[in-house]
């Protein structure tokens, strides 16, 4: 009985991952949009992502790291509940910024992407007067057991002097419909901290 109670949370988590659409099989779609089969996460014989998935990751990184763009900075409202206690309401789905990559994400993943990455990088860059520029020729996307990993270089700095470079690494997953259902920056080499500095 004790064993079944301890394993129940793990079974529920596995069911939620399967139900959320970030399953182990990924669709391969031709440029015309017709399904060409699936890639199983267990068969990691292909070292790079499909061309279409690479394009989606590149477009997402370009949107995230070229700016700042004031239209991408999320709006939130803070309500004071009591002394020292406040509640911040993040932007609703209807008020999320329109970006070139919005349709490439599931609704939940896009909300998370905007809140955890897009509005932060663009907001900090704007507040500190810095600019970011993705070096598109240095973007690499590779297949992993659970999805895809990416590596990119982002140049940043104030004014015309964009002479510092941060190496960005992260992870993405596509669901069975070919939409991004997970996006995470694993390491930004201190970029977010550098963008917060008011030099």
TrEMBL record:
Keywords: Signal. Residues 27-46 are annotated as: Disordered. Residues 1-24 form the signal peptide. This is Lipoprotein. It comes from Caproicibacterium argilliputei.
